[in-house]
Amino acid sequence: MPRAAPPPPPPAKEAPKQDDDYDPFNYTSSRAPPAAPSHPPPPSKSPEPVFSPPEPPAMPPSMPPSIPPTPPPAPPPAMPPAMPSFQPPPPQTRAPPPAPPSNRVPPRPSLEVQRSVTNTRRSIDFSRPSMESGFVANDVDLAPQSGWWLQPKGLPPQLQGRKDIFFESEESQSADQGKTMVTRDLYILYQDYSQTVITVTFDPQDTSNAHLDQRHEPPPRALRQDQLEESYERFGRLISTAVTSKKDTVVGDGTPQGLVYELLRPLGDALLPVGTRAYGALVYSNLANASTTLNDEIRPGDIMSVRNAKFQGKHGAMHAKYSVEIGKPDHVAVVAEWDGTKRKVRAWEQGRESKKVKLESFKLDDLRSGEVKIWRVMPRSWVGWEGQN
């Protein structure tokens, strides 16, 4: 017993020395120092009765065998290689992401090319304005075999007899290789004030040799209120004064349209009506009181058109009921007065209830069906026409 007690302290002191002697070996096992001291105590107790007396120096050899079992913790050194194994993949994963954007760059110019194609489509579509722009002017069958342009007021067969257009023409001559060539320009105006311009160039001596072409122009842009007022000052006042002097007379052919035509004819630079439904720039529109538009105050001298309309309501001091249909066929009158509070128009008309020109009232709130439109007479320059009527 006394022998067993002293030996343990010396090995504890010698162990660090031996550890210093085997410093390189212990460096490999430095990461498992807690496990090393745990193993030495059990063998020191078990071999104490047998090995401690004869083999105090044998303790060092006993220590190396105790250290070989420590290599099992060698897996920790295996972990460092595992860590680098994870580190290389991130750079590999980072390398692919930049590659896709490089591949995506080429498609972008291809998209821009497609956009440029859409721009060219607009120019192509412009040659067919009536399909997408929404105006009436459209390609006309020019019928080159018919020779319609040889007539003084000839029109293509497709347009002959139509009452919803207004047209004018002009001719000029030119010399070409000793021949006299005639160029005729035909301007066709539709109710929305879009127009078709047909140009025919032909040899009067050889009517079979003719060149025909056509183009289309959109309606004029919507006018500002000050522009509408300017047209009123230019034409409206004159028309109002002229129609008042026609009271109780039959003007022109006695029709409602005849009255308006005769009032505009003396105004050489005023644009004449287009058929029986368009008389200039639209000032007011009322579709059965379901949809109304007012672009300017209704003024004397404006032209009121009525189509398929039914007025129904009460009038007079006794509030008597009334119902009247107007505009079958189309009716037209000249505004004399506008009462915005009562929404009532007083207008000069002829050819409806009386053949002579007289003053009638129309209460717009009583409109139950049909349409009422009021127009401002415009100059010829509004549609790009020069000269006078």
Automatic annotation (TrEMBL):
Domain of life according to the entry: Eukaryota
Pfam families, alphabetized: AIM3_BBC1_C (PF25459)
Sequence ranges of Pro residues compositional bias: 1-13, 34-109
Domain BBC1/AIM3 cysteine proteinase-fold: 214-386
InterPro entries, sorted: AIM3_BBC1_C, STAM
Region (Disordered): 1-126
Coiled coil: none
Name used for this protein in its record: SH3 domain-containing protein
Organism this protein belongs to: Magnaporthiopsis poae (strain ATCC 64411 / 73-15)
